[in-house]
Amino acid sequence: MSILSYNGGDIIAMTGKGCVGIASDTRLGNQAQTVACDFQKIFRMTDRIMLGLTGLATDVQTLQQLLTFKINMYKLREERDMKPKTFSALLSTTLYERRFGPYFTEPVVAGLDEDGKPFLSAMDLIGAPVFTDDFVVAGTSTENLYGMCETLYRPDMNEEELFETLSQALLASVDRDALSGWGGVVHIIGPNGVTTKQLKCRQD
């Protein structure tokens, strides 16, 4: 088994019209054994940037704390919030610094630019980034997530439609994966702030 799938978990991010959404399951596992059903995998870095981390749970928490420190230092020094593209570059270099003893995580960055344009990026454990205009996925059931996203995604969705699409794609995918599921959470970043909703799914 890959160390990236040891604790299980899935993340999906998707763009809409003037908004962006990111969703994850809430399971923390020890391979096939479920340890907790409320493990946080999506973190609010600024008012307009959300970070999703899937992979080894200890590295998820370590990397999130390190990035929170770096983004706070940036705000103190620059006296402004970091842009999503800048944060993605910071995350990429942070991972590449540790390439010989990497953090076993697969990050997903979702955010809104100052002009309200959605931003999505994802990277591997040594920080090689990919940028997209529609959706990105990470975790143990990426094949299922890609299939559902390609089926359900359409451009220029509003916030409600984006929430519904993310929810259906996540729930349908984790139902077919033994290492993820047991609940979900969806965050929608819009011009008026962040909306968070919890999802219930199968508990088996």
Detail the topology: elements first, then pairings:
Blueprint: E1 10-15, E2 20-25, E3 28-30, E4 33-36, E5 42-46, E6 49-55, H1 57-78, H2 84-97, E7 105-112, E8 118-123, E9 129-132, E10 135-139, H3 142-152, H4 159-174, E11 184-190, E12 193-199
Antiparallel strand pairs: 1-2, 1-10, 2-11, 3-4, 5-6, 6-7, 7-8, 8-9, 11-12
Helix pairs in contact: 3-4
Written account of the structure:
- The protein has helices at 57-78, 84-97, 142-152, 159-174, and strands at residues 10-15, 20-25, 28-30, 33-36, 42-46, 49-55, 105-112, 118-123, 129-132, 135-139, 184-190, 193-199.
- By secondary structure, it is of the alpha+beta class.
- The protein has a single domain (3-199), classed as Glutamine Phosphoribosylpyrophosphate, subunit 1, domain 1 (4-Layer Sandwich).
- It has a five-stranded antiparallel beta sheet with strand order 10-1-2-11-12, with helices on one face.
- A hairpin with a 5-residue loop joins strand 8 (118-123) and strand 9.
- Helix 3 packs antiparallel against helix 4 (159-174).
- The longest helix is centred in the first third of the chain and has 22 residues, at 57-78.
- The radius of gyration is 16 Å and the shape is globular.
- 45% of the residues are buried.
- The mean pLDDT is 90.
Identify the CATH architecture.
4-Layer Sandwich
Radius of gyration: 16 Å
Give the strand tally: 12
CATH structural fold name: Glutamine Phosphoribosylpyrophosphate, subunit 1, domain 1
| Uncertain residue segments | none
Largest sheet, in brief, is: 5 strands, antiparallel
Structural class: alpha+beta
**CATH top level label:** Alpha Beta
Task: Let me know the CATH homologous superfamily.
Answer: Aminohydrolase, N-terminal nucleophile (Ntn) domain
Shape: globular
Tell me the count of domains: 1
Average pLDDT confidence is: 90
SSE order in H/E notation?
Answer: EEEEEEHHEEEEHHEE
The count of helical stretches stands at 4
Strand proportion, as a percent range, falls in 25-35%
Distance between the termini: 21 Å
User: Strand order of the main beta sheet, please?
Assistant: 10-1-2-11-12
Share of helical residues: 25-40%
